[in-house]
UniProtKB/TrEMBL annotation:
This is proline--tRNA ligase. Coiled coil: none annotated. It comes from Trypanosoma congolense (strain IL3000). InterPro entries: aa-tRNA-synt_IIb, aa-tRNA-synth_II, aa-tRNA-synth_II/BPL/LPL, Anticodon-bd, Anticodon-bd_dom_sf, Pro-tRNA-ligase_IIa, Pro-tRNA-ligase_IIa_arc-type, Pro-tRNA_ligase_II_C. The keyword ATP-binding applies. The lineage of its organism: Eukaryota, Discoba, Euglenozoa, Kinetoplastea, Metakinetoplastina. The keyword Ligase applies.
Length: 784
């Protein structure tokens, strides 16, 4: 038995769907509620848990409704639950669905949340002394009564009756979760949480007092909820327990059906360290990604949905981007500045197309303390409307041009369906440049110069290849003239990801915000409107880097952004090692660390003697440190260092001599090259040129980006997306259609590559319903 330990993830609101009419419970069902099936077999327990299932008759007379005909509408507490959650500031993603009566049925809805999550099972029990117990565990945990009884110092636990369930928790079979405790005013229910659930890096799914809805909540939020309603709880480690005997001879025993095998069970291998990544990158990418960034200590989930804590291991990467890109921005002659995060409604709404593009994402401040603001103010989703009223104030003459400003700040974009740390969040860090020029030529030249700098961040700093191009009219920045982009490719899922954009805004914003200057070639007072551009790169670069380079062992960091480039670990120390030898080895490690750091190599020595060398190897591999140096007595004597490369596991030997710094820095550059070449090869091999529609969807489903001829008409762009989505779904089996990971998204136009493979003369538009001649090659693909 142990107490709860923080910290766990927080997820943002998901999209709700329409509610369908539920169906009544079957006539016979188990006391555990969510686990029964039509035949009466309990599905919550594996065959090894030895838990009996009790059946009962619930026929009643008079006006009381029979419990075996109760539905979600007979549950109470949803309104009170919402009040408690709102008081805590928890905005839980919630979906509606048909009533779910088994764990398997409920788990089929998990994919609709659009984020990695895991289902639960909930047991309402009663002891021989009348004690009430609510057990909540992950759906694949092998629970048993003996563990619960030992932890609570009780005995003879059995499933409580449906009448008692409704009396004490106010819900019916299939709706039992800790949320129902809002109805237990007597506080006479003991709560048990599965240790695996408490330590989960994923949010869990619970019914909000009725089984026709499901909500996402994280372990840390669940802890806050239980504390708020004055319930303590006990954590039980079911993995260390032995199977218990059946609860009672009075119960009719039913052999449970085997629990379905899932990829989550892969980590339950005896002896496997919990340090490593349980999910496979190739089989369950979204789960792998969450595990990788949390276990590598890059991200911590926050208690405001859609927001995340960037820990030092990740923030150093952003600092490296700032240093690299900031130097190039300075060389361009662009000056740094800062504008307030708030923007008035009047300014925000002056550019119609611009605000329509951002309106669903704008967060508004409506209160100050207990008082309503007379005029609400928005938190910037981007800074065009924040800055340009002041451009109008500062620009009067052609001598005031160019105005070239850059800001490192954060922006808030509140509304989205599928949050993903670094890739899509409600608040994110970025830089945004805003410049005004006298001529279109000057403005356009800078747009491309910035795009080259963004490409360099990816290729020279993060070892990630990109495709430079121009967005289609449909995909360009709202209110802009045209948009250029660097597009990246995530091989594990076959998706593109927009890396950064540089926009030529034309003269549109100048017209809207009355930005003008006197025409230098005329003396009659006539004015001209300047040409403007804006450009931005965000912390999304970190997510792309992780997705491109990571593997099943965790994160793989490019050397130039790793806060620790070399980790030094002493080896060969045993219980028989003399104190003098041990001290000599430790001193040697510290000496090497000092030498590397003084030579500009970021090095750290791991001397934690409470962990084995193997554990420490795994720890730093998971965090992605480029080079591991192992020093033992032999290395101390020979002055030959044994090093292991994180990017490919290759072992090398380096002389510990006057050329050490040069050798290590050369090796770090080599590692960068290895990582870039591998990523570039993957991207090129999965970029397929397709000219016939019959080959388009198969190429897309093979996790490729598709380069195809296009006529330039937006309706064809939309049709390609729709047709590819429809065909993908039609080609899937029933099981694949129910699997949220199966490819079903249509292909969007990622960009019109600057590097066109060949003239499109004589080729037809890729859209199957279009006979127009193609005008250009377009890169299509699924994307984040």
């Amino acid at each position: 038995m142990q107490r709860r330990t923080p910290l766990m993830p927080v997820l943002s609101r998901g999209a709700a769907s329409t509610h369908a009419v539920g169906r009544p419970f079957p006539r016979c069902y188990t006391y555990c509620g969510r686990c029964h099936n039509e035949s009466g077999a309990c599905r919550l327990f594996s065959p090894n848990t030895n838990v009996s299932v009790v059946f009962f008759s619930t026929a009643t007379t008079g006006k009381t409704k029979a419990t075996n005909t109760m539905t979600a509408s007979d549950c109470r507490g949803e309104a009170e639950l919402l009040r408690v959650l709102q008081g805590l500031g928890f905005e839980l993603p919630t979906i509606s669905h048909e009533e779910k009566h088994t764990v398997e049925e409920a788990n089929k809805e998990l994919g609709r949340f659009g984020v990695p999550c895991i289902g639960t099972k909930n047991l309402f029990l009663k002891s021989s002394k009348g004690e009430l117990v609510l057990v909540t565990a992950l759906h694949n945990t092998k629970t048993n009564m003996k563990s619960v009884q030992n932890a609570l110092k009780t005995k003879d636990l059995r499933f409580a009756t449906a009448e008692l369930l409704h009396e004490k928790l106010g819900v019916v079979q299939g709706s039992v979760t800790p949320f129902a405790l809002v109805n237990n005013s007597a506080k006479d229910v003991m709560v048990v949480l599965d240790k695996a659930l408490v330590e989960s890096n994923l949010p869990i799914v619970l019914h909000p007092c009725r089984n026709d809805k499901s909500s996402l909540i994280t372990p840390v939020q669940l802890e806050g909820f239980l504390k708020c309603i004055n319930f303590s709880y006990t954590v039980v480690d079911f993995s260390d327990s032995t199977p218990a005997a059946p609860p009672s001879a009075e119960a009719k025993e039913v052999k449970p059906a085997p629990a379905p095998r899932t990829s989550d069970n892969k980590g339950d291998v005896k002896g496997e360290t919990k340090l490593g990544i349980r999910a496979s990158r190739s089989e369950n990418f979204s789960h792998w990604y969450v595990e990788a960034i949390t276990k590598a200590e890059m991200i911590e989930y926050y208690d405001v949905s859609g927001c995340y804590i960037m820990r030092p291991w990740a923030y150093f990467i952003w600092k490296s981007v700032q240093k690299f890109l900031g130097a190039r921005i300075d060389e361009m002659g662009v000056e740094d500045c800062y504008f307030p995060m708030f923007v008035s409604k009047t300014c925000l709404e002056r550019e119609k197309d611009h605000i329509e593009g951002f309106a669903p994402e704008v967060a508004w401040v409506t209160k100050a303390g207990e008082s309503d603001l007379e005029v609400p103010v928005a938190i910037r989703p981007t800074s065009e409307t924040v800055m340009y009223p002041y451009f109008a104030k500062w620009i009067r003459s052609h001598r005031d041009l160019p105005v070239r400003l850059n800001a490192w700040n954060s922006v808030v974009r509140w509304e989205f369906s599928h949050p993903m740390p670094f890739i899509r969040t409600r608040e994110f860090l970025w830089q945004e440049g805003h410049c005004a020029w006298q001529t279109e030529e000057e403005c356009s030249r800078e747009v491309l110069q910035v795009l080259d700098n963004y490409a360099a961040v990816y290729t020279d700093l993060l070892a990630v290849p990109v495709v430079k191009g121009r967005k289609t009219e449909k995909e360009k920045f709202a209110g802009g003239y045209y948009t250029t982009t660097v597009e990246t490719y995530i091989a594990a899922v076959g998706r593109g990801c927009q890396g950064a954009t540089s926009h030529n805004l034309g003269q549109n914003f100048g017209k809207i915000f009355d930005i003008s200057f006197q025409d230098p070639d005329k003396s009659d007072g006539s004015t001209l409107i300047p040409w403007q551009n804006s450009w931005g790169m965000s912390t999304r670069v970190i997510g792309v880097m992780i997705m491109v380079h990571g593997d099943d062992r965790g994160v793989v960091l490019p050397p130039r952004v790793a806060s620790v480039q070399v980790v030094i670990i002493p080896v060969g120390i045993t219980k028989d090692t003399q104190r003098e030898q041990r001290d000599k080895l430790v001193d040697g490690c510290k000496m090497l660390e000092r030498k590397l750091n003084s030579g500009g190599v970021r090095a750290r020595t791991d001397l934690r003697d409470n962990y084995s060398p193997g554990w420490r190897f795994n720890h730093w591999e998971l965090k992605g440190v480029p080079i591991r140096v192992e020093i033992g007595p032999k290395e101390m004597d020979t002055k030959k260092l044994s090093v292991v490369l994180r990017c490919n596991g290759q072992r090398r030997s380096i002389s510990w001599d006057e050329h050490l710094i040069e050798s290590v820095t050369t090796l770090l550059d080599e590692i960068h090259g290895i990582m870039f070449q591998r990523a570039e090869k993957e991207a090129e091999e999965n970029r397929k040129k397709v000219t016939e529609w019959r080959d388009f969807t198969p190429a897309l489903n093979s996790k490729a980006l598709v380069l195809s001829p296009w006529c330039g008409v937006e309706t064809c762009e939309d049709q390609v997306k729709k047709d590819s989505a429809d065909e993908s779904k039609a080609q899937q089996s029933k099981e694949e259609r129910e699997d949220a990971r199966a490819p079903s998204m249509g292909a969007k136009a990622l960009c019109i590559p600057f590097d066109q493979p060949e003239p499109v003369n004589g080729k037809k538009c890729i859209c199957k319903s279009c006979d127009r001649p193609a005008q250009m090659w377009v890169l299509f693909g699924r994307s984040y």
